[in-house]
Amino acid sequence: MKSNFLWGTSSAANQIEGGWQEGGKGPSVMDALATVNGHRVENDNLDDQNLFFGSHKAVDFYHHYQEDIRLLAEMGAKAYRMSIAWTRIFPTGLEEVPNQAGLEFYDRVFEELHKHGIEPIVTLSHYESPLALAKDFGGWSNRKMIELYVKYAKTVITRYSKLVHRWITFNEINCAQVPFGIMSACGIYMSISDKRNTSQLRYQCLHNQLVASAKVVKLAHEIDNRNQVGCMIASMYTYPLTPKPEDVRANQLSMQVKNYFASDVMIRGTYPGYIKRYFKDHGINIEISDEDQKILEEGIVDYYTCSYYMTNCVSTNKDAEKTSANLISGLKNPYLQTSEYGWQIDACGLRSYLNEVYDRYQLPMMIVENGLGMHDTVEDGQIHDEYRIKYLRQHIKSLEEAVEDGVDLIGYCAWSSTDLIALSTGTISKRYGFIYVDVDDDGQGDFTRTKKDSFYWYSKVIESNGNTL
Asked: Which residues in the chain land under pLDDT 50?
């Protein structure tokens, strides 16, 4: 790797911070998701003692940020991809004056990172729109969200212009297309099974986010010409299940619609022909003005980031065997092993994906999420997570091959720094971190931090710039 390669870790505010009512913070859509029998459910009564809301405490980064950043420094991290909680800055999203306590909290976080020589890579919106906007405006289905988001983004980009120069507008923006994204990515207080949760609604939400992103890209460049702004895509890389031509075509369309559409708009500045055909075939009519088109053309991003966990297969055979996946289900690949959660492990696919994306865009790339969620066991105060080391080793080897192929890869931030609350369940038993946090699925524990074996392994990877795996 190049000497300035950004080795690091990643997290999200709603999954680590806690302190959901401290420092003037307002509730986000994620704060309204309770865990019942391992599943997320919406609940208006956020103080219901009979329900568990994982984001309310999370792993308490709000009070442990100095310790957690010190541990990142001990690991040798060069970068930390994190997010700002919108509702710490504007509790309902409607305020004209930002919450000073929230701004000061991130002042301290960024200053602590810089003290340890760690570069922050900051996501402006990571699945946590203000709950008030979800209830009163229908979240991102309402164009009013665009200017409210721009106001928030302008506030924080201006405030932290001396401390942050790499920004990401929306986390996994393409997930606004999937039914699960209606509460998190689309910021709408609506269940997955709600009859109003239609493709039409979700694609309108996505369009509004694409316009908002483009506005913020242009704004960030005006605030400070050192600012670099990236897109962030959930890799939904798939293969045709068979060489049957219909399977190959089905896979091509799946990749276009699920994986490339959002980044095509954010990087090329216009809606591609295939999505216009897709909208026509599915009766989807998005409100796109001439002004929107101009904004999209003027606000293309500077670099490409993505999450990568697994791959799936696509087929026209409706009876093909399915398997679990990140946010959406997919078809089982008979040549891949799976994790205990049914996620298919495909390190080779990472190399293929990086090559395809780089060939398409020719922009600097960064992996900002990649990791393995497993049940970890504490044995005599230690966590021996060789399975995580094996997974990460395979994927780092694959990305190094991609660099040899000519891909301009500028960084790798593994998911995640500490253990954190899972997006889909709100629980912590499916652990991802290099650092174990003593808290259980009911929020009980003393929040003590313990370094796992993977912590020491990754430290050597960073120190050797990827030469020691």
From this structure: none
Contact present, 314 and 238 (Cβ < 8 Å): yes
Give the domains, in start order, of the chain with CATH numbers. 6-238+298-311+345-463 (3.20.20.80)
d(CA 397, CA 383) in angstroms, rounded, equals 24
| Residues 206 and 214 sit within 8 Å (Cβ to Cβ) | no
CA distance linking residue 247 with residue 360, whole number of Å: 22
- The β-bridge relationship of strands 365-369 and 166-170 is unpaired
Q: Angle of helix 261-268 relative to helix 199-223, nearest 10 degrees?
A: 30
Angle (CA) 172 174 177, round 5°: 130
pLDDT of residue 48: 84
Q: What is the pLDDT of residues 85-102, one digit of tens each?
A: 999 999 999 999 999 999
Which residues are marked as active site?
172, 369
pLDDT of 127: 95
Listed in sequence order, the residues at least 6 apart from 222 whose beta carbon sits closer than 8 Å to its beta carbon are none
